[in-house]
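FAQ: What does the model actually see?

It sees only this:
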Amino acid sequence: MEAEKLKTVLENHKKWLNDEGGGKADLSWANLSGADLSWADLSGADLSGADLLDANLSGADLSGADLLDADLSGADLRGADLRGADLLDADLRGADLSGADLSKRYIIISCIGSRKDSTTYCFDEDKIWCGCYIGTLAKFEERVKETHKDNPQYLKEYLGAIAYIKSLKV
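And it is asked to produce this:
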């Protein structure tokens, strides 16, 4: 996305947040790879599917933002406010989340199972996302044991991930 267009979107979003007209930022599917959005107020913005590869989002307010399917790999999210952000299927590999406020604790385990995809678990909600499966960790474990009973490799991978998640529960 061109810098001038991004600046306009951010200005309109700020007006929207302050009830001064403008409009909510719609940056869905935007190419923001490498963008400097440090300290930007993107609370409530639509960033679903956005390419934020290696973007600088340090100190940014992303509370309540829609980051569904966003590519945040390698992004600098140090000190970012991610409270209530939708991170479902977001790629956070290599992202720096030091000091970020997630208010909900997540873990993402990558390159696992038959699809070599990511599995995400939210400790605070006891909710796991793996492929098209969404449910509790206990139900996921039952399903893994049934689905992969004849495939020792995938069974071992998933049960190892489940055991690791259980070891981190506080």
